[in-house]
Structure formats: C-alpha cells, structure tokens
Specification:
about 110 residues; 6-stranded antiparallel β-barrel; 1 helix; alpha+beta
C-alpha cells in the first residue's frame, strides 16, 4: 500500500558502528516496506524501523538511487510483519480497495 509517514531507522554498519536516521515510509505490506533515505544502505543490512506505535525488524533487499534520494526495500522478519492493527501510516492509499471501489461505482452507473 502506498503511504507517507516518517519513521526512525536504526542499524549497525559492518565496522560495528550504530546509526540512526529518519526515513520516509513510501509503501508498506505485511512482509516489507520501501523507505526513502539520504544515504545508501548495503544489501542484507539488518535494520530496525520504529514508528510511534510500532517497531519492526528486517533486512535490506534493494537500495537504488532515484532523483530525490535512495529507495530501500526492507523485508520484515516473520515476527515483525506489519498489519493495520499494528499501526496505520499517516497517509495510506490502498490501491486494491481503490480499484474495487471504482469498479463498484462503474457498475452502479451502468445499472442506472
């Protein structure tokens, strides 16, 4: 689901140095999320993602630079999977629900 919310991320680099930064949560699903960050993160880096209402752990699966920063894909660990009951990002767009709602409206217009 597309979303927008600020989260805190924490990780330890290969030299053992701890890091903390703020990231923009771009999208989220039960098994992972995409974050926008200012610095590249190496693949397989274990990362903790913290929101005021939840904490999840996972590993970096991709990191690509786009015009406005790095987009980092995180795969959550099984015990850290996300759900709406855990927390709902500030701005959340459920594309599947949007398509279903549009189809229902079109169907109603077709019957009129």
């Amino acid at each position: 689901m597309l979303c927008a919310d600020m989260v805190t991320i924490r990780w330890t680099d290969r030299a053992g140095q701890p890091h903390e930064d703020t990231a923009l949560l771009e999208d989220i699903a039960p098994h992972g999320a995409c974050l926008q960050v200012e610095k590249a993160l190496p693949l397989d880096t274990v990362i903790a993602l913290q929101h005021a209402k939840a904490r999840m752990r996972g590993a970096v699966r991709y990191c690509v630079y786009r015009e406005i920063g790095y987009f980092v894909g995180i795969q959550f660990t099984p015990e850290s999977e996300w759900s709406r009951s855990m927390f709902t990002p500030q701005h959340l767009l459920d594309l599947e629900q949007l398509v279903l709602d549009s189809a229902k409206k079109a169907s109603k217009r077709g019957r009129s």
